[in-house]
Design a protein that fits this description.
Layout: E1 4-11, E2 15-17, E3 35-38, E4 45-48, H1 50-61, E5 63-69, H2 70-76, E6 89-92, H3 98-103, E7 109-112, H4 116-127, E8 131-135, H5 138-145, E9 151-157, E10 165-166, E11 183-186, E12 191-196
Amino acid sequence: MGNVIAQAMMSVDGYIAKDDNTIGRLFDWLQNGDVELVSPRGDTTLHVTAQSAAHMQSWIATFGVLVCGRTLFDFTDGWNGRHDFDVPVVVVTHSVPTEWVAAHPDAPFTFVTDGVGAAIERAQKIAGDLAVNVTAGVLAGQCLELGLLDEVAIDLVPVVMGGGRRFFGNAAVEDVPLGNPTICVQGDQVTHLRFPVIR
């Protein structure tokens, strides 16, 4: 099975979004380069540096499934049934949004109502040997608490947000060690980092 990786763009003070789920300047670097990069879904075009483009293409190639929580699912309206990276999505939720499911019968979405552990197990079966990408925030924090994370991937943006939603939410953990970065790629106004979780 592939690794379970928590990933997000993050400010230098540790936030992945504002309290209202908007992202401020965290995505600015996605349009500040000379290399055109079209999303796997085909409807979003980014302009990033060559370094960021190579990193993102490598990342997307190893990406088998996304695991997200209900807050992000609702905020994006389930990406209209097809995620930007064109991968299956596992949603951790207390209740299945039956009207949305009926309106998107071909969407490769799985709704798991019996907890984060069950969602990761289901995602790993779907992803096979590819990576399971867990969205940062409360869900990543729960995975960290349960010892389910193999890696932490951060696109570090040099901005101070001053508050908002933290990368690991309010996880009840202390002094969890991470190894030296296995990836450190400098783009323009972003540094791409990946750390192994030491168990």
